[in-house]
Amino acid sequence: MGTINIFENIMKRNDEIAENNKKIINNALCINIMSSPGSGKTTLLEKSLKVLKNNYRIAVIEGDVSTSNDARRIKNVGVRAFQIKTENYGGGCHLDAKMINEELKKILKKSKFDFIVIENVGNLICPADFNLGEDKKVVVLSVTEGEDKPLKYPLMFKIADLLILNKIDLLPYVDFNIKSFKNNIKKINSKLKIIMLSAKTGKNINDWIEQLKLWYIEKNKF
Ligand SMILES: Nc1nc2c(ncn2[C@@H]2O[C@H](COP(=O)(O)OP(=O)(O)OP(=O)(O)O)[C@@H](O)[C@H]2O)c(=O)[nH]1
Ligand SMILES: [Mg+2]
Ligand SMILES: [Zn+2]
Question: DSSP 3-state assignment of 150?
Fold first, then answer.
């Protein structure tokens, strides 16, 4: 058996578990948020879930190699959060469907949720390969990372349903050219929707909140 076959088998098994996750998730809207380390995923969640928690039941699954810092930050805004440390699974640089499956079984045993939000391990590469059973994949890129990232990490931008361009408050201080960024996105995924916001100042964060509500309504309209 060659290396390719082993990889294909891992992905096939992952997709089977992801299908099972979909069944467990049922009517909840599940999103998988991915980005390189530090682009602002947790900050975005802190700010937006603080608003959404008034009308929706929300659970957040945090993926990190180590520490429970992010789960603690989410709990501090009054939202239920569960930490996966991939060091307990051999130190992986991504979440896989099996890790999510184990977590979902615990989380959904006693409670029901409208939103299940997964913050993946900071990494623009392999999280793109692993379906988790989510409804939507969101990629966050911050303006400090450079406008060429969609070209350098194409798979992530190909598979995303939505791109959040974060830290726009820093645009005056960095060489991030919005026009060439949009051109780069066009080359990789011409239909990709982009929301430009600042999780720090809250500018345009309402567009993201409205997008989440819309996806929830779309999933539950029948
Ligand atoms: N200026 C500015 N800073 C931001 C913004 N959003 C997040 N940050 C800062 O960026 C740093 C990283 O933010 P996090 O929210 O921890 O990023 P993350 O993507 O969750 O990081 P990992 O989970 O480690 O991958 C923190 O110092 C935040 O305060 C923003 O919109 N503008
Ligand atoms: Mg984080
Ligand atoms: Zn990985």
Answer: helix
Ligand 1, atom 14: nearest CA belongs to which residue? 40
Sheet holding 162-166, edge to edge: 80-85, 58-64, 115-119, 29-34, 136-142, 162-166, 193-196
CB within 8 Å of 139: residues ≥ 6 apart = 33, 34, 35, 124, 156, 157, 160, 162, 163, 164
| pLDDT one digit per residue (tens) for the chain, 222 residues | 577 789 899 999 999 999 999 999 999 999 999 999 999 999 999 999 999 999 999 999 999 999 999 999 999 999 999 999 999 999 899 999 999 999 999 999 999 999 999 999 999 999 999 999 999 999 999 999 999 999 999 999 999 999 999 999 999 999 999 999 999 999 999 999 999 999 999 999 999 999 999 999 999 997
For atom 7 of ligand 1, the residue with the nearest CA is 40
Give distance in angstroms: CA of 122 to centre of ligand 3. Answer: 10
For residue 39, give the ligand 1 atom closest to its CA.
19
Q: Which atom of ligand 1 is nearest to the CA of 70?
A: 23
Q: Which domain holds residue 121?
A: 3-219
Strand-pair partners of 140? 164
Report the domain count for the chain. 1
**Domain CATH number, residue 25:** 3.40.50.300
What is the best residue among 43, 165, 200 to mutate for testing ligand 1's pocket, by most ligand atoms within 8 Å of CB? 43
- Which tokens go with 178? 């919005």
